[in-house]
């Protein structure tokens, strides 16, 4: 087992464990905190995969913005009473079954798959020559310009929607 | 060298855990978190493909997934708050307005 | 084509006011409506000028309906007849719009009123300008609709709503006939264009059509069906019952729609179709007799009514009868001439009575009026002018047109003599009830409450100025049709209309004509004299006469019990039948059976499977995950 593989094994085990913790904590605040830890690991994995820009976004947007939003909402709702009742629904055994079967079958399929790489132009050297950010930016602002603009509209809609939904009804 | 399959299998496991969390938990917020977990597991596989196929498309797709996830989280939580104002519970098995 | 704007401008005004009226325009609606109709008036004058130079405008704006052989275009025909109608409609329309600014001031539905009036003007212009029967029919129905809107304008009053419905339903009888007539015309001529239909009117001669097993003359059939529509719209016996009730609407509406323009649509239509009517002596005689009988019956009813607007309404019915009398004896231009003069003095009568009603705060009963002469001098003056005109006092407009009709009737053989007699008696009655109206309203002592007396006032200029304009019309409008016996080529309107309506032939000596003229002057003065005696000199006389001839008085006061007759013979049986058959059987058993049965079946079916919908998010998610799992399984084992 090479060093890289050992690193990967650490990440894999840590991430699986964190994921399990996330879905099993009774207090949602704990879940969110575990999630933050998971995001750091994911960002590490991205660095591993030569995607520095994505790693940065993972930390900034996901950990910095979205998870904080979750924390705010949890604080806002102030759910003391939720902690005293059962945290799982009645259907939890079935869910466990589904989760296990799904994981098992996916792992079985995926272990059988071999990717015959038809390699693109963005080899590690090519990316390193220009820098990860520059490469992503070039693709994003040329080939994917229209989806990019549409994404901005989606965000705008989300902003307006969130404001409209969350504001007080004016009588 | 880490084989691509490893990444994909990690992603699959995390995804299954997310599915379990979504199906089994009663707390709506934790269900949301499970959703984010599933999205992230998919992101991992996309980035891995991007790396191994030496293509940029995977990373771009992740970028858009993050955009949509942000929008989804904002709207979802806003709906949650709006719902909570009218009906102060986030126990998902008590929300059955659509009952036939 | 600039003349397309004539109907279009009021329509635009309607659109703007009805869309923006409630929120933005409100009490400024007249700033849009009046310029629109006034511009139409100017354009109408221009069109009239063009037509009087001998040019007939006939244009198709666009193809409206094309379906196999059926080909109708949206087109306008402006000939001599239309030009006169355009002038009447737009000039009186403009004056009444201005009047309404004062009259409707402060009404909560102010913008709605102007919107409907604009729509009415548009519909009426389409009616008179259309170059085919379908356009005319469209305008015909649209004015009926506007009439319905405007009669029921104060819909919160039950009587107004009922009157609107009555007008609409009674008109339906006539319009049904008119519609059938139009269809029959299409079947016969294969076209609805006026020029084509009238051009080949000759082919009607001798043709018959099978109607309920008997062969009927085709021309008679068509003309009687068309006349059916005219009877409804122009309130002739037996469909006259709606018009007096229509007085529930605001007074400007009564003046514009139920006196000057819409109700004359029947006259216009018959005159327009004169090439068809000429083919059928039977239809012509029917028109003349219905007209004559209506003229006299309506006049007798008007003798004893006490509601100021109802008297004028019956007077309108009676005058419309005159017009049909003229058309029936073949004097089409005389009928149109009377239509034209009548529009002015009758609109004037209505608007002046509106001024009175306004001053008395919606009091319409003449028994509670009296002595208004000194409070409302202007209104009194124009009222007297209009009355002089309608009663046919020489050298006012009513004299010329009425005299023309009576003279043309007199020339028309034995039937004509009889009709002339009817007409002259009706003129006597007209003079009597018109002066009775004036004496009861303006002379004597005020009989209303002291509260009303304190508030008595002359109407503001926005009301009196249109009155004076109409008064000028009531005096001078007739000078376009001076009988040739007085002035050579005096009958300008008859000559102007001759290309469309033809010359009515008649043979009579000058002595006979003088006799007719003096007879009508004599009856006009006699009616005045009798009214003067009964309502100024011996004011107890009407009471005595009323008790002396109690049955007659009762008969007239109750309008020959025609409403009651219709109620007994038509409405009540219909109501009973619909209650038993439609409500009792069809609605209760058939409709409700279907309506309740179908959902019951569906409900019992869905009752079982609706439990599947738990409404729980997680359950749905679970099913979705199971589906995904199946998909994965399929990939593993089948793929």
Explain how this protein is built.
The complex is a heterotrimer of chains A (171), B (100) and C (639). Chain A is built from 7 helices and no strands. Chain A is 76% helix and 0% strand. Chain A is mainly α and 171 residues long. The N and C termini of chain B lie far apart (55 Å). Chain C is built from 26 helices and 4 strands. Chain C has helices spanning 5-25, 30-52, 80-103, 110-129, 133-151, 158-189, 194-199, 218-233, 242-245, 251-260, 265-272, 274-278, 281-304, 308-328, 332-359, 377-391, 397-410, 413-442, 450-454, 461-476, 492-501, 510-537, 541-548, 550-557, 562-609, 617-638; strands at residues 57-67, 70-78, 208-211, 214-217. The termini of chain C are far apart. Classes of the chains: A mainly alpha (171), B mainly alpha (100), C mainly alpha (639). Chains in contact: A-B, A-C, B-C. At the A-B interface, helix 1, helix 2, helix 3, helix 4 and helix 6 of A face helix 1, helix 2 and helix 3 of B.
Question: Topology of this protein?
Answer:
The complex is a heterotrimer of chains A (171), B (100) and C (639).
Chain A: H1 3-24, H2 28-48, H3 52-77, H4 92-112, H5 124-130, H6 132-142, H7 145-166
Chain B: H1 4-24, H2 28-53, H3 57-86
Chain C: H1 5-25, H2 30-52, E1 57-67, E2 70-78, H3 80-103, H4 110-129, H5 133-151, H6 158-189, H7 194-199, E3 208-211, E4 214-217, H8 218-233, H9 242-245, H10 251-260, H11 265-272, H12 274-278, H13 281-304, H14 308-328, H15 332-359, H16 377-391, H17 397-410, H18 413-442, H19 450-454, H20 461-476, H21 492-501, H22 510-537, H23 541-548, H24 550-557, H25 562-609, H26 617-638
Antiparallel strand pairs in C: 1-2, 3-4
Helix pairs in contact in C: 1-2, 1-4, 2-3, 2-4, 3-4, 3-10, 3-15, 3-20, 4-5, 5-6, 6-8, 8-11, 8-13, 10-15, 13-14, 13-18, 14-15, 14-17, 14-18, 15-16, 15-17, 15-20, 15-21, 16-18, 16-20, 17-18, 17-22, 18-22, 23-24
Main attributes of the structure:
heterotrimer; B: about 100 residues; mainly alpha; Helix Hairpins; 3 helices; C: about 650 residues; about 75% helix; globular
User: Roughly how many Å apart are the termini of chain B?
Assistant: 55 Å
Structural class of chain B: mainly alpha
User: Helicity of chain C, in percent?
Assistant: over 70%
DSSP, total strands of chain B: 0
Q: In angstroms, what is the radius of gyration of chain C?
A: 29 Å
Strand order of the largest sheet of chain C: 1-2
Described by strand count, sense and barrel closure, the largest sheet of chain C is: 2 strands, antiparallel
CATH class of chain B: Mainly Alpha
Q: How many whole angstroms does the radius of gyration of chain B measure?
A: 17 Å
Helix and strand succession of chain B? HHH
What count of helical segments of chain B does DSSP give? 3
What is the fold named in CATH at topology level of chain B? Answer: Helix Hairpins
